[in-house]
Amino acid sequence: MSLPEPTRQDTRLDRYVSSYAERTNGMRASAVRALFAVANRPEVVSLAGGMPNIADLPLDALADTFKELVLTKGIQAMQYGSGQGEPMLREHICEVMALEGVVAHPDDVTVTAGSQQALDLVTRIFCDPGDVILAEAPSYVGALGTFGSYQCEVVHVAMDEDGLVPSALREAALACRAAGKKAKFLYTIPNFNNPSGILQPIERRHELLAVAREVGLLVVEDNPYGLLNLDTDPVPAMRSLDDEQVIYLGSFSKTFAPGFRVGWVLAPHAVREKLVLAQESATLCPPVFSQYAVSSYLETQDWRRQIVAFKDMYRARRDAMLDALAEYMPEGTTWTQPAGGFFVWVTLPEGLDSQAMLPRAVTARVAYTPGTAFYADGLGSRNMRLSFCFPTPERIREGVRRLAQVVNHEFELHQTFGLDRSPMHHGGGAVGPVPDQN
Ligand SMILES: Cc1ncc(COP(=O)(O)O)c(C=O)c1O
């Protein structure tokens, strides 16, 4: 039978426009998606994406490990598995969490397809449309996208240099209650927040948990970066301080590799049961081969030493970025000093707009993520997130140099004309995740 040549469907016409579920209105593409396509060209230094640099993984050793896996356990590894995740991996996950002080039983762990799916399942089991999620501001763009897709209202809670502000959390929770709304949980990234890089010290964690208990608020602790502490020992996880009030999300994406899509949720028993039901309805079971692969990696390789090697590499990149910012950025620009993770959060001088500036930066062959992506309410126009995880230190330095020239130029124009030249000033907080923008 000869079939006609496939042609690409005309994507301008959508015959189903009146048929979509209302929740699709909460799924928004990023306003800067088109620019990111350009930003991925080799001549552009991209400080935008959050891709881990996994080039130093021992590929030969991994090839041997995975060959052995297929030969000895291939039949189980390629079969359907448990909706909760493979018992062997759940035991390993408990060992990993112990590094941040978490004492947990494998039975309380649910494996997910990355912590992104963990966010999805947690929101699915707790939130009805219109429910409120309290989220530190700024917050991870992918979480905001998930919350939007479940038609939740995100109420932001202010951070200072030590993370979420406890009094602001109390106020937000009480204001919600007074308005007759249900705040289902607090979403926080206590270690090296994406996008700001801010770390919550231990005292702050205690204070926040005290407020959460006082107002009866569940805490969702999202912790993909906790073991990428570049300057000090890991701070005990919030879950290690309270095993009733906290649901903990973890991931192998940053400490091993994101392509396996293996993350997890640690939750009190009743919540865990709901999570497994939600997981079964979403995917039947998390990816089984990936779970076996991650388990074999943890069993056969020196993964702790690999994390130390990753940290040495990220530390050099972080230092290159902070040095270059200090050397090149004009006065009036400020930035965070992350002690770990992947990101630096920059605040531009008054009057500048990072979203409006992005096309000019890309023309100058450097890209970043505008701050508005990390707020559900359109704030963040004076901010940008710079990632130091992927480019080499030399490229980071060059990228920051180019960016500083653009900022300088914008600043001079602003000083000369005093105009708001942004057509999108304070507009459209783009919260939808875009490829390579995590
Ligand atoms: C704070 C945060 N949470 C969750 C994720 C999702 O990670 P993954 O699904 O790869 O585990 C990311 C990815 O960048 C992140 O930064």
UniProtKB/TrEMBL annotation:
Residue ranges crossing the lipid bilayer per the database entry: none
One of the Pfam families matching this protein, by short name: Aminotran_1_2
Family annotation (SUPFAM superfamilies): PLP-dependent transferases (SSF53383)
Assigned keywords, A-Z: Aminotransferase, Pyridoxal phosphate, Transferase
Aminotransferase class I/classII large domain span: 56-403
UniProt xrefs under Gene3D superfamilies: Aspartate Aminotransferase, domain 1 (3.90.1150.10), Type I PLP-dependent aspartate aminotransferase-like (Major domain) (3.40.640.10)
Designated name of the protein: PLP-dependent aminotransferase family protein
Organism, as annotated: Luteococcus sanguinis
